[in-house]
Amino acid sequence: MTRRWDMYKRQPGFVLGFHGCDQRVGESVLAGERHLTPSTNPYDWLGSGIYFWESSPARALQFAEAAASTAKMITKGNIKTPFVLGAIIDLGNCFNLIDASALKELREAYDFVSSALAATELPKNVGGPDKLMRNLDRAVLETMHQLRAGFHEASRATPPYDTVRSPFGEGGELYPGSGFSSKAHIQIAVRNSDCIRGYFRPIQR
Fold first, then answer.
1. Are 67 and 79 in contact (CB under 8 A)?
2. By the 8 A CB rule, do 92 and 190 touch?
3. What is the mean pLDDT of the chain?
4. What separation, in Å, do the N-terminal and C-terminal C-alpha atoms of the chain show?
5. I want to staple 23 with a disulfide (CB 3.0 to 4.6 A). Which of 14, 81, 84, 185 is the partner?
6. Cβ–Cβ contacts within 10 Å for residue 4, how many?
7. Distance (Å, whole) CA 64 – CA 75
8. What is the pLDDT of residues 34-44, one digit of tens each?
9. Is pLDDT at 2 greater than 60 in this prediction?
10. Which superkingdom (predicted)?
11. For residue 38, what are the contacts with CB-CB under 8 A and spacing of at least 6?
């Protein structure tokens, strides 16, 4: 496993994340009655974790509203009243998929999965042009975490990732001929819940 540039995987400072959910869940978290729980769906884009939209309460609200209004299952939780919950996140040791070394590590994990499952069919990303059900990506990401854990146990050299972060282009062209996507965003999956330093109610103004 490649370990060059590992000292730069730890991100300085905090980021603001926004989670789209049902109002009942959000109010319960704000009241200190519960913590958000990790998503473990087989199609999760960034693998297991507590999901946030980075710096975009508007995108979190769009997601919650879509989940409340569609018959399609886009989240396991039942959303009746769309709500946005803010969080202060320490990215910690971050698997940051805008970093070339992270992309290389993920490709190495794919090669391992492809070889290990050579006799069977690999999971597939499906669900239209945006590939909304990312079974392959989740399998590769979880394998990467498992490989890293194995190396860490053997040599103490590869600490586990606290968070996974990636930009996504989604939703087609923002305007005709555009290189921008209409639903472009950055997602964060928090694997170590201690990295969520606090929750807050976003101010709408």
1. yes
2. no
3. 93
4. 47
5. 81
6. 9
7. 9
8. 999 999 999 99
9. no
10. Bacteria
11. 48, 49, 50, 190, 191, 193
The answer, yes or no, to whether residue 78 has pLDDT greater than 90, is no
Q: Taking a C-beta distance cutoff of 8 angstroms, is the pair 68, 82 a contact?
A: yes
Inter-axis angle of helices 135-155 and 100-116, nearest 10 = 100
Per-residue pLDDT tens over the stretch 111-148: 999 999 888 999 999 999 999 999 999 999 999 999 99
Residue 34's alpha-carbon distances to 27, 63, 88, 103, in angstroms, are 10, 22, 16, 34
pTM: 0.92
Q: 162 vs 204, which has greater pLDDT?
A: 162
Do 88 and 14 contact (CB within 8 A), yes or no? yes
119: which residues sit within 8 A by CB, 6+ positions away? none
| Segments making up each domain of the chain, as ranges | 15-195
| Residue of 56, 86, 191, 70 whose CA lies nearest to 132 | 70
